[in-house]
Amino acid sequence: MTCPRCRHENRPQAKFCEECATPLSRVCSNCSAPLSPTAKFCPECAHPVAASGVQRFASPNSYTPQYLAEKILTSKSALDKNVRERAAQVGRPMGYRFAEGFVRQACAAIDEL
Predict the structure, then answer these.
(1) Among the listed ranges 26-30, 41-45, 81-85, which one has the minimum average pLDDT value?
(2) What pLDDT shows up at residue 98?
(3) CA angle, residues 87, 92, 97, in degrees to nearest 5
(4) How far apart are CA 99 and CA 87, in angstroms?
(5) Does 92 have pLDDT greater than 70?
(6) For labelling alongside 78, which of 35, 36, 98, 108 has CA 20 to 30 A away?
């Protein structure tokens, strides 16, 4: 059986990975049916399988240098200001009602960044 975490090939009857100690056999928390190591849902009751304690992706704070994080945040605020100014300039000649909707959409797009 291949470990889902480290890809080490273990004996077929192993309950834990010989390399990283990850549990190889799992059971559904809802109905106690056996689950495969890669199952996301129980094959018996379709209950979602709880994610293992392993974090899939680390937080960006753990690997992003502070100077780079500050530069990104500064750039975002500058972009925010620039888009809001441009939206207001474009909207003026087109009338207030249209401009209001346009600015609202532009601001929503910026907030998603």
Answers:
(1) 81-85
(2) 57
(3) 90
(4) 8
(5) no
(6) 98
8 A C-beta contact, residue 14 and residue 23: no
Cα 59 from Cα 52, distance rounded (Å): 17
The mean pLDDT value for 72-97 works out to 67
| 59 CB burial (10 A radius; 0-12, 13-18, 19+) | exposed
Structure tokens at 65: 């240098």
Long-range CB contact pairs, 35-43, < 8 A, 24+ = 37/1, 37/2, 37/3, 37/4, 38/4
Spatial distance between the Cα atoms of 110 and 113, rounded to a whole number of angstroms: 5
Q: Where are the beta strands (DSSP E) in 14-112?
A: 26-27, 34-35
Dihedral through CA 102, CA 106, CA 112, CA 113, nearest 10?
170
pTM, full prediction: 0.31
d(CA 40, CA 51): 8
